[in-house]
Each structure stands twice: as structure tokens, then as C-alpha cells.
Write a structure and sequence with these properties.
mainly alpha, globular
Length: 153
Amino acid sequence: MILDDIVDLSGGKSLDNNKINKESLSILEFVVKQLNTVPIGSHLKGYHYLLTGITALIEDSDMKHNITKSLYPYIAKKWQSTPARVERAIRNAITTAWKNGCAENIKALTQNLKSNDSKPTNSQFMLAIASQYLSASDLLTWAMPKTHGHSPS
């Protein structure tokens, strides 16, 4: 994953450009821009977990099928934490932004995934940003569940 060689993008530490390819950096830049547009405070652990998680979702669409059992443990391992702490920190970051007057920005971001005006789940929030990165044709392939070789009768 692209975050292997990144310690802290938003903290101003320099990136080793020799270890990060251009496509990966554009994914990272896109995710950072989206999180800052909401805005999610970069001082929150949840911000960094969201950055890692959304980037992983874009790079590996299989993770979207089981966020609790695949994505949270992946993020926890990267940040030397636990899946439960990752889930809570992400929920806290979204809730903090929601309560600090950014509810309209979040609603606009997740409007295609939700039918009501309630605060989105962690999964809805991350999938909304990941889906925005993908092109329309990629999104159709990405969003479809895998059939594992079974064809409809």
C-alpha cells in the first residue's frame, strides 16, 4: 500500500518521492483534499485512520466487502493500534465534524449512499470518498459484489 513509506502527510514531514509512484500520490492527494473539504481535523487520530482506510479501499476493492474484518485490522496494523480503537477514532472524527457545523458537507458527500439526512456510518463515509475517486466505468466494476463463479439462473 502507498502509505507504507508515509509517516504523516498532514504533519508536514517530507515524503520520499523515490518510494511513492505518481498514481499513488494522486490518490493520497485526492483523499487529503476530500477530508480537508469536509473538514475533518487533521489533529484527530481518526483523520489519519480515514486517510489510510480510504486509500486502501481505492487500491483494493475487495476490502469494501468486509470493512470490520479486513479494513479496520489493516489500519490498526499500520498504526500499531487495535481494530476497535480504529473504528472508534474514525466514528469520533466524523461525529466531531458533523457536530461542528459540517453536516451539510458530509450529507453532500454521502448523498448517493444514504436515503436520509442522518450522520453516515464509517463505511458510508469512506466508501463515498473512495467512489468519488473512481471513474464511472471503474465504479461499476468496483461496486458490484463478486459472484465467485456462480451465474444467475
